[in-house]
Structure prediction request, 61 residues.
Amino acid sequence: MPAAPLPAPIQAGEDDEGGRGLLLVAALSEETGHHDRHPIGKTVWARLVLSSPSEESACTS
Prediction:
């Protein structure tokens, strides 16, 4: 069985309802990747860096 196609961003039109997912993931993540899942499919992952709340925004009550 052939490998699943690699995820690739597409140029979404202004009125398109889809096609922006990989662009959003790339903008919000530190790192992304994918690997084949056997016997079919692929797994796509993203690593996010989460910061702790700043002291200014922490609740003090």
The longest strand covers residues 31-36.
